[in-house]
Amino acid sequence: MHTQATPLLTGRGLVKRYGQQYALAGVDIDIHAGEVLAIVGPSGSGKTSLLHVLAGILRTDEGQITLGGQRIDQLNETRRSELRRTEFGFVFQSGMLVAELTAEENVALPLLLGGRDRTTALGAAREWIGRLGLQGKEHRRPGELSGGEAQRVAIARAIAHRPKVIFADEPTGALDTRTGHDTVQALVESARTTNTAVIIVTHDRELAASLPRTVAIRDGRIEQAVPTA
Amino acid sequence: MNPVQLALRVLRADRRTRVATLLTAVGVAVATALVLLLASLPMAAEARAERALWQQPQYELSTGGGATISWSSSTDEIDGELITRVDVAPLVDPADVTLPPGIERLPGPGEMLQSPDLATLARERPPAELADRFGAEPVGLLGDDALRFPEQLVVLVGHSRDTMPDSAMELSSFGFGDAEPDELLSLLAGVGVVVLLVPSLVLVASASRLIAARRERRLAALRLAGATPAQVTAMVAAETGLAAVAGAVLGVAASPLLHRLAAFVPWAGGTWFAGDFVLPVWLVVPIALVVVVLVVGAAVAGLRRVVNTPLMATGTGYARKPLSWWRLLLVPAAVAVFFWTLTQASRQDGTMLPMLVALGVLMWSPSLVGPWITSALGGVFVRRWRRPAALLAGRRLRDDPKAAYRASAGVVLAAFAGSMALTLMPSLEAESGYYSQFREEVLYLTTSEDRAAAIVADADEALAGYGLDVRAARVDHADITSGQELHMAVVATCAEAKRLLPGTEGLTCRDAPAIYASQPLDLAKAGVHDPSTGSTVPLPADAPVAPMPAAADVVVVDPVLWPSGAPAQGVSVAVPATEKSREIVRTALLGASGGEQVISKEMMLGQQDTQLADLRRVTVIGLVTASLLAGVSAAISTAGSVMDRRRTFGALMAAGTPVRTLARALRAEAALPALVATLGAGALGTAVAVGLFGLVSQSAPVFSPWIAAPVVLGALVALLAAAVCAPALRRVRAEPLVDE
């Protein structure tokens, strides 16, 4: 359990509506640097909405979000994009890698988009691909990788630019249990080396139970926030 | 649920399918309307030619007996606009002369019927500039059925038999029946079908790209659920068929509007009557059906992957599709065959067909070579990239060059044909100045020896009456033999020759009468050739011979030195004019001759200019239309390509990638193949045109700025393709992580 007084990322009174439907109905949440947190809940509970709102992909209708004490919920789209590019990393269910690019190019892409030169970006990409156990597969395309390997490439892509927070939306959804568990472990271990916080949305209670902290959400409200490991 | 019901259900449920269906229908409508228009062109040309048959000489109606009219036609002009003049005298009771449609009555001697535009012009201009030419009073107007095109300037002048021009012939009736087809327009229509149909069908194919991924998944799911290949095929045929039939109906419905627009495009001197473009139903229905069958057939053919391997189609597998280098061999091979056939064609007759086949292969070759070049260009990007935009574009171009190139395929044909035409035209224009037998700003009239003196006298009287100092001169033509050589000779004083003959500007006149020749002339052997007897009438052996500038390829003999009894082979009356006096001089000559043909260098060049302007206009219209279609196809393809990868792009945007960065990459991806294709096809078209020009001329081809037009239009296509990147991505950004 993290005991730092100042959380890295906070959400207060978060409300998100889709028409008359409340996806989030007043959520309060704190995430500390280097913390690993699972958000669990049934389909339609609001867990993905919470992830997207915290990451600045969606705007909140009400409430405040701060990163390192600074309000980020009022930033415009350009600033939020910049924030997501520099301070956050993302891992999605099916990797969402660019099919035409090789593994190392996929990992290097956010760095390149952030203004790094080719040599630096590819160097960092190779380093993270190696750390995630994918040596020798740098030049493979996503279609030539297994599901677990593709997710590791996605993890490398999310962490290569050393973000403060990684958001993972159902990262094991397309994987078998064993591979899914290994993939999450790889994500958690990688994040630990860079003191990056990780927020994982999952409907897999067993997976969530293996993580240090779990937040359960139902009907857009936090049910419990208990340390699990 | 039958396939049509299923297709309707999908249409109701899925907005993007509706958009794609609408675009498919629009593409089919455009294709149908264009083909209907192009198919109607030869018929339209025939219709206008048939209306004008009474203005044309029809020698088969010239009979020894049974003639009803004495008929003559000539062309005239005012301010560069062609006037067709028909002179007629009845040889029987005028009531027994069958009149062409649009002519209500036969004008009597001294009467004339004019087309409405000519009548207006004749009223607006001073009589000396136009009305006096006809020597008749207007008694009515010619109807539309008697006009080649609405604004045609045409006059039917009535005569008695004895006042008809020398060139008159006796005919059994005015011309009627079936006109000869306009071969040039028919050829252009054929080329147009290829050049415009291809981009239209590419547009349809691009529309199906918008829903390709979604449809593949749906059909693959149906295959996995047990649907047979035949059922899946029927579903796609129904889906596409609905759009294609709707599009074809729309195309047929829009066809009259397009015909109306086409009627405003001048051809051979004038625009068209809207009714010229009417196509018979027996032709409309098969054309519409063929377009529908082509579109449905293409959609069904595209199902191969889903039908054969439904599991692969549902996955996210990405396969590289490299191309063989042998494709590159096709261009040099086609060029070699083309130029070989070209040299054969220049040596002997009857080898046009292999040359046309080789030209067809050449036109097809860019579609094979283009993807390879696109792939090679992608390879350069992949090796040399510095920014992510170049990397993304390079990989896409490298891995699936056919797909990247597909949207540009339409403009390639247009660029090829356009470059060819736009290279040939300035070169032909440069050649067109060749009318060395005429001097600039001199009007010539050919007549008989009997009438020449009277025409000269009448013309001079008219010129004086109009206040002009210039006078007409009789110029006799003959052939002079000198040993084995034959020279064209003109009987004229040196001063007249300097005034009236081409190339004589530098001629120095002697004080005494002389013979002027540009080549040595041995008068002991020289004589005037009499073609009727084959004998020669000697020239005076002691006549002085003076030099003539080489530019004037003629021997000028002073009338004093012309041997008596020497026959003239032709008699002309010539009058010099200025730009200001040209129309008045023309009126004087025509009024004096009563309808003989008056020609001038300016008139001949003007007719050539009209033809070249027609070709240029048609080329530009075809190019612009093909480019617009190709541009829209490329834009839709680009949008489809974004939609195919919306989850990837959505994820990148969710991770903070700016739209402008992704848009830059996509713009390069979309625009480069179009530019490469256009430049390549343009270069090839230019090379072919140079070869073709070499076939008809020894001169060097002329390159005008027009040659850049295909490249500019290619850039326009590229811009259109690239323009949709940012809007499509912004649409993805609105819901970046929404599933397909």
TrEMBL record, chain B:
Transmembrane helix in keyword set: yes
Membrane topology summary: Multi-pass membrane protein
Location of the protein in the cell: Cell membrane
Record's keyword terms, sorted: Cell membrane, Membrane, Transmembrane, Transmembrane helix
Gene Ontology CC annotations of this record: plasma membrane
Domain ABC3 transporter permease C-terminal, chain residue ranges per copy: 193-310, 623-735
Stored Pfam families: FtsX
UniProt record similarity statement: Belongs to the ABC-4 integral membrane protein family.
Organism name: Actinophytocola xanthii
GO molecular function terms noted in the UniProt entry: transmembrane transporter activity
Protein known as: Permease
Transmembrane parts of this sequence: 184-211, 232-257, 277-303, 324-343, 355-382, 403-425, 620-643, 670-695, 707-729
Alphabetical list of InterPro entries matching this protein: ABC3_permease_C, Macrolide_Exporter_MacB
Top-level taxonomic group: Bacteria
